[in-house]
Every structure is written in structure tokens, then in C-alpha cells.
């Protein structure tokens, strides 16, 4: 979801080890600038579970930066996320780096990691050598001031709603080049993050692949000449273990039947079932691949829920479930006691804290937030489990 919307042979542990000491020093330096006296986290170690109990998972927030900022969020909630995320068009346009610098300053003050989602709206071919050099230089500048960055390039590439969607060969080639550029910065890593598979191949989107698409043969994984829910929704887009540091998925509750827009509580087991492939859309009997087993457990890579929330349609308020009923049912699944044991490589849950219009949800603005409504916010913060790293910072303002 959006607002509109050659790596070396080192192991993961070897890549991270030299960063930890640097980050501890950076954390001490940045904590003095923060309003909250609690020391800033050792960003890289915290977000990857290093230095914490094995079952700890970081809580992150995909902010609405036009109307919110890290300080306002923590003041409102009384807790400090380990990560703040932002979307940006890539290659960068001239003013972008300047306002990104301002946001990174705010993330630094908050003692958090920055997740930068790069959106190549001019197509995958727009990712030039100059753009990659600028990306590396920008990341290095942020890293050298103590901010670790998790880069998410061309997310939800298996979807049909972005101009980079369903083009696996071009996507993989671009991802590998971006991966090299990201890793040339000392405290930056890259995450591969498709959309969860329910509804694949997402027919009806503006960028859905057809039989005449250049990469159709790569998408038709069962070889029957058709692109259907029987085809693999993930494998054609995977850039390869050596190019990926993190794996993640966008995982939402939009409802239970398309077209979306009805206010319906999530079905039991939906969150975990979408990760493992055990969840079934009501209009299909196809079992999707087990994302966690294939891409996190097999590879040993840390996994993120890159975006998540549950839909409430204010234009249909009074019809069906309330916003509190929907959001609480979803966070109860996300924060269930068995999540760390079921998904030990899970290191980050990133909440989509924005209200926005959705092309396939009639009625205007859709509510995804959990901190704007005081009752929803208070019930959520009271339900935060001990395994979710989302520490209190004192009295809420």
C-alpha cells in the first residue's frame, strides 16, 4: 500500500557484528537530543532481535508524515516504536532528499530505525546508475549520524496496482542493483516485500500481466498457459538469497469478500493463516505457499510484517462491526501469545498508521489508524504483550 498512492560472501551475523558497537555509540549520542530521557535503542541490534530475548519483536509505524511526526506519535501514545517508515518516489526528485533529511533527523531524535520504501513510479527502467549512486550517498550520510535504514524497494511487486507490478525479470534485475547500492552504506539493509498472496494474481488491476506480457512465461508457473491463483504468487519475484537481507509481506484485513467496503471483523486465525498459506479466501479453495517457511525459516532471514492494519469504512458507520471491534480483533491476532513461538524469525510488525482513500473501497477515506481514536488507542496500548518491543516512555500528553 502507498500514500496514493555484488554482495560479498559474508554471513548475516558477520555483516551485522561490526555495526553493533557503532550503533551503541550512536544511540548514546542521540539520546541526549531526545525529549524522553530513556536511552535510544541500539537500532540495528534491536530491530533484528540481537541483544534481546529470542522472542522479542519490534513494533514499527508507517506514519502519515503530512499530518504526524515521531514526537507527536510518541506523545499521543505514550510508547516509542522501534521504527518509523516513509514512502518516497525513486529515483529521488531534487527536493526529496532535503525533506527526507528532516524526517531522518526526527527519527534519530526518537532513537528509531528508518524504513525507506522506494517507489519507482516511472518504471523499473528508471533506476539508473546515477540514481543508485545518490541512494548510496544519501544512506551513508544518514548512517554516519547513527540512523540505521531498512530499504524496501518496489514493494508489493506481485500485485497489479503499481507500474512495477508483475514484471519479474525486470524487477529482479533492478532489485539486485538496488541491493548492491544499499549494502554499500554501512548501516543499511534491504527487504524483499511482496503482498500476501490472497487474491493473486489480482485480476482487474491497472498493471495486471496478460498472455502478451514479456514475462508471462515466468508467471505461468504451472505451465497451463493461464495466470491464475494456481500459479506461485512469490517465487517468480524472488531476487535470490544472496541479494536479500530481510523478507516481509504486506498483510491487511480488507474484509472477507470483494468488493471491499463492508465493516467486518477478521475471521479467526486470519493473520497467521495468511503467513502460512492456511487461510482460504471465501471465493477460492487454493492453498497459498507458506511464506514464513519458504523465505524466513529456510533462509534464516529476519522477517517483517511490512504493513498491516484492518479496514474500517467510516461511510458505512453503523453498518456491521464498529471500528473498535474490527481493530481489536485484528490486533488480538497479531499479538497472540503463540506468535513468537510460531514465527521465531519474525522481528518487526509495522502498523499502517494512516487514513486514506482506497481505489477499490467506495465511500471516501478508509480508516487504518489505531491511535487517533482515544478509546481504540487506549485499548490497544493496554493489550501490548511483553514480547512486543514497544516500550512506555512515561506519561502520555
The gist of it:
With 397 residues, the chain is of the alpha/beta class. It is built from twelve helices and eleven strands.
Task: Tell me what you see in this structure.
The protein is 31% helix and 17% strand. Helix 7 links the parallel strand 5 (188-192) and strand 6. The chain has one domain (12-389): TIM Barrel. The strands form two sheets. It has an eight-stranded parallel beta barrel with strand order 1-2-3-4-5-6-7-8, surrounded by six helices. The protein starts with 11 loop residues before the first helix and ends in an 8-residue tail after the last strand. With 397 residues, the chain is of the alpha/beta class. Helix 10 runs parallel beside helix 12 (374-382).
CATH fold node name: TIM Barrel
Number of helices: 12
Coarse structural class: alpha/beta
The helix content, as a percent range, equals 25-40%
* Number of DSSP E strands: 11
The level-1 CATH class: Alpha Beta
As an assembly, this protein is single chain
Shape, please?
A: globular
List keywords for this structure.
alpha/beta, 397 residues, TIM Barrel
List the helices and strands and how they pair.
Layout: H1 12-31, H2 43-47, E1 57-63, H3 70-77, E2 83-89, H4 96-110, E3 113-119, H5 129-143, E4 149-153, H6 168-183, E5 188-192, H7 216-219, E6 246-253, H8 270-276, H9 291-297, E7 303-310, H10 323-334, H11 339-342, E8 346-353, E9 355-358, E10 361-367, H12 374-382, E11 388-389
Parallel strand pairs: 1-2, 1-8, 1-11, 2-3, 3-4, 4-5, 5-6, 6-7, 7-8
Antiparallel strand pairs: 9-10
Amino acid at each position: 500500500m502507498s500514500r496514493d498512492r555484488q554482495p560479498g560472501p559474508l554471513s548475516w551475523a558477520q555483516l551485522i557484528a561490526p555495526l553493533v558497537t557503532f550503533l551503541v555509540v550512536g544511540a548514546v549520542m542521540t539520546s541526549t537530543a531526545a525529549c524522553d530521557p530513556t536511552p535510544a535503542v541500539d537500532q540495528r541490534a534491536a530491530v533484528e532481535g540481537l541483544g534481546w530475548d529470542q522472542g522479542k519483536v519490534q513494533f514499527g509505524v508507517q506514519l502519515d508524515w503530512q499530518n504526524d511526526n515521531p514526537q507527536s506519535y510518541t506523545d499521543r501514545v505514550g510508547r516509542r516504536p522501534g521504527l518509523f517508515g516513509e514512502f518516497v518516489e525513486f529515483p529521488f526528485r531534487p527536493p526529496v532528499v532535503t525533506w527526507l533529511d528532516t524526517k531522518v533527523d526526527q527519527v534519530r531524535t526518537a532513537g528509531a530505525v528508518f524504513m525507506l520504501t522506494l517507489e519507482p513510479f516511472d518504471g523499473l527502467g528508471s533506476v539508473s546508475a546515477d540514481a543508485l549512486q545518490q541512494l548510496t550517498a544519501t544512506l551513508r550520510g544518514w548512517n554516519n549520524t547513527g540512523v540505521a535504514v531498512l530499504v524496501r524497494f518496489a514493494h508489493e511487486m506481485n500485485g497489479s496496482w503499481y507500474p512495477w507490478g508483475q514484471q519479474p525479470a525486470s524487477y529482479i534485475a533492478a532489485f539486485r542493483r538496488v541491493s548492491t547500492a544499499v549494502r554499500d552504506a554501512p548501516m543499511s539493509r534491504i527487504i524483499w516485500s511482496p503482498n500476501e498472496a490472497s487474491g493473486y494474481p489480482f485480476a482487474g488491476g491497472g498493471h495486471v500481466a496478460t498472455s502478451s506480457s514479456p514475462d508471462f512465461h515466468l508467471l505461468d508457473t504451472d505451465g497451463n498457459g493461464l495466470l491464475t491463483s494456481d500459479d506461485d504468487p512469490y517465487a517468480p519475484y524472488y531476487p535470490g538469497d544472496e541479494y536479500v537481507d530481510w523478507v516481509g509481506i504486506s498483510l491487511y484485513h480488507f474484509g472477507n469478500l470483494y468488493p471491499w467496503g463492508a465493516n467486518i471483523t477478521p475471521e479467526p486465525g486470519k493473520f497467521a493463516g495468511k503467513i502460512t498459506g492456511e487461510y482460504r479466501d471465501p471465493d477460492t479453495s487454493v492453498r497459498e505457499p507458506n511464506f514464513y517457511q519458504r523465505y524466513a525459516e529456510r533462509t534464516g532471514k529476519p522477517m517483517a510484517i511490512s504493513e498491516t492494519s484492518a479496514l474500517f469504512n467510516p461511510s458505512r458507520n453503523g453498518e456491521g462491526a464498529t471500528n473498535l471491534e474490527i481493530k481489536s480483533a485484528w490486533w488480538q491476532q497479531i499479538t497472540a501469545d503463540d506468535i513468537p513461538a510460531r514465527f521465531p524469525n519474525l522481528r518487526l510488525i509495522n502498523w499502517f498508521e494512516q487514513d486514506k482513500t482506497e481505489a477499490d473501497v467506495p465511500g471516501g477515506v478508509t480508516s487504518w489508524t489505531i491511535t487517533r481514536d482515544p478509546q481504540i488507542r487506549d485499548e490497544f496500548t493496554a493489550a501490548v504483550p511483553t514480547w512486543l518491543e514497544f516500550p512506555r516512555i512515561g506519561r502520555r500528553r
